[in-house]
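Just scan this pair:

***
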Amino acid sequence: MVKVIGGLFKGRKLKTIEGLKTRPTPSIVREAIFDILAEKIEGANFLDLYAGFGCVGIEALSRGAAFVLFVEEDFKISSVIKENLGLFGINAKGQVLTIPVFKSLKKISFYNIKYDFIFLDPPYLKTSFKDFFELLSESNILSREGEVIIQHSRKVEIVLTENYLQKKRYNYGDTSLSFIRRKGSEDET
């Protein structure tokens, strides 16, 4: 059972489907993300890539994000995100794209929205982060001071393009969170 852990919807259950190839972000990791982001999430645009059932994006909305775009390529799973948005009465604050993440970045750029936070939790050991950051640079969807947050296996080192730098890395058991910024942003340290 997955519950929202903070904010307006604290304690409310998210709908999930057993047996599908998803691994919802553990509550300890979600709590860490939003403790780190703190008040910066208020009014932010948030992009939840490899969204699964949408627990991270809905947590962002619960804590005051203005808008969340969820990207999940599996139709059955993305329909659960839509149901969760409806259950919480926040359809207007979220949109769901059912498309592979790497294809989505170009499409997202046509929306002309800059995202303050981009969260991705790709299948462990199956994503080329360098390719992702090349596409991210081309799409120009990260706001000037925006951050990319990657949930990944502790065994994985994130390979970045020259335009980005890893600001911090936190470990939680076998899971790591890497916070990445564009070089030249005011808060690189």
The radius of gyration is 15 Å.
